[in-house]
Amino acid sequence: MVFLSTLLISLFTTIVLIPALGAVAGKFNAMDIPDERKVHERPIPRTGGIAMAAGAIIPVLLWAHGDGFVRAYLAGAAILVCFGIVDDCRGITPKWKFLGQFAASLVVIFLGGLKIRTLGMLLPGYADLSGWVSVPLTMLAIMGVTNAINLADGLDGLAGGICLLIFCTIGFLAYLQGDVIIGLVCLAMAGAIFGFLRYNTHPATVFMGDTGSQLLGFSAITLSLDLTQGNTALSPILPLFLLGIPVLDTLLVMILRLKRRKSPFSADKNHIHHHLMALGLHHGESVIVIYTCQAFLVVAAYLLRYYSDWMLLGIYLGFSVAAVFLISVTSHNEWNVKSDSFVPMFPGFRYMKDVKQKGNVIRTVMPALQVGPPLLLFFTCLLPSGLPAYAPYCTLGFAGLIAATWALKWDALEEVLRVTLYLFIPFAVYESSHAPSDWAKGVPFQLYNGTFFLLAMLVILGSKLSRRQVGFKSTPLDFLIFFLALVVPNLPEQNIQAYQLGKVGAKIVIFYFSYEVLMVELQGKLGVLALWTGAALVALSIRAIV
User: Fold this and answer.
1) What residues have CB less than 8 Å from 224, skipping those under 6 apart?
2) Count of structural domains, the chain
3) Does residue 320 sit in the same domain as residue 381?
4) Can you tell me the distance from the alpha carbon of 304 to that of 315, in angstroms, rounded to the nearest whole number?
5) Three-state SS for 436?
């Protein structure tokens, strides 16, 4: 219950605060103005970091404030947030930024006891580092990664998505090691990032600013060090994998700047995302490529967590050399892979284009897609054999909210439906899969599972063959959701396998995407969808009572 409440508090606090803070950003000069180095074309509020800080810190204060390390971590985070707010509103010099990072580092090192005490097998006889070495090394690591995440925040959703993968992995490793405190803090950070990415996915309506990027970088390095430097079998080299892309990006940029006899802290366009966009990749494609590389590294961190430190270091260095070599070759030869340019070259794409222009298939698919998700959700609500005592109150409450919004013709019907479905679908799918009624077991339940494959095909056809200029577009956030839904349920942990999270996660993702496509295609005509959703909620409440 504590973990669930932590996730929900951080998520909804961030979601609620971002619009409110964005509305007053102009009054405090907290706006990001476009220039020649930036990819956005209009001023955008950079107050998302403040909302994330509140969303992440509040649940940690509620549940984990008694831990000594957590108190030091919160004090250090508060210092960085204060410096970040001043920077986002007024602007401060790099010297003042470093001063804030230096102060935050001192707090977690001397009050929280956070130090890099060992490098594992990299030193003879597993020798511990002396205080004269461990303290400066720890400070360098904290300040370096804090700035690395700050420098990586160059595209919409980039830094947030990378850090989401980092915190999910640290949290899961902490769970495996029995470290509840670190797991809880990571869950709070992940919830805040999810809430922020709702507004920061391209095209972004809010930026995290230095407040958010410094908080994320500071949190990622301190939590990863505390986890791997404690009494644990985890390799002390794991933070390199967990923080892999930001660290590699920062080192690459600084080396290039020094090679050109420039300050390592000067601004330029040598970041990895700049190289990807120079290749002709679109904004979202560049973000997804970097997400994929970071996902590879965090999965490797999980799989190799108990391996030799020298092996881990060798693998990371090999990955880094390969990445730098690939970037160098593509830049030197001025490769351009504009994806839109190859589409006419392939017969399959030409066939799809002809089908899309004729519209025969989409005219058949769309009626089925309009009926399929609501009908399947209604049937899902009839399956559970038993539900918690609070279920009818919650479901009837949401049904009443939908009915009131529809009857009073409020403009918020789409948002009310979306929030209701996003909360209601996981609950209904889990309960129907975990404990189906006797009448639904066997062949009926197998047929029910098969309909999700058909629904997925309808969603793909509907999104790809729609001729609307404004339609459902997949985003990098969808990639993150899909990646987590694919990986987490298939982790070889008994608790995860016992709850059939693989099937549950797949069904939830299919439902989510089908409703997203459906809402876009309905173009605001949501009356029938509201009626079906209300009926499903009532059906679930009846199952809870009967």
Assistant:
1) 166, 170, 238, 239, 242, 243
2) 2
3) no
4) 10
5) strand
Among 519, 508, 521, residue whose Cα is nearest residue 417: 519
Task: Tell me the residue type at 481.
Answer: I
Final residue in a domain of this structure, among 312, 339, 366: 339
C-beta atoms surrounding 215 within 10 Å: 30
Give, in order, the Cα–Cα distances in Å from 441 to each of 120, 144, 437.
52, 56, 7
The first and second tokens of residue 79, run together, are 């210092």
Tokens (6 digits) for 300: 């490797």
**Domain coverage including residue 206:** 2-339
The angle at the Cα of 231, spanning 227 to 234, to the nearest 5 degrees, equals 55
**Radius of gyration of the chain from Cα atoms?**
25
User: Which of these, 288, 281, 204, 203, lies nearest to 476 by C-alpha position?
Assistant: 288
d(Cα 381, Cα 390) in Å, to the nearest integer?
15
Q: Is the model's pLDDT at 197 over the cut of 80? A: yes
Give 494-543 pLDDT, tens digit per residue: 565 555 656 777 788 788 888 888 887 787 788 888 899 999 999 888 88
Q: What are the pLDDT digits (tens) for 242-273? A: 999 999 988 888 888 777 777 776 666 778 88
The Cα–Cα gap between 210 and 448 comes to: 48
Owner of token pair 């009967």 = 546
Under 8 Å between Cβ of 271 and 249: yes
Instruction: State residue 342's pLDDT score.
Output: 42
d(CA 96, CA 432): 55
CA distance 94 to 79: 16
d(CA 17, CA 107): 28
C-alpha–C-alpha distance, residues 400 and 409, integer Å? 14
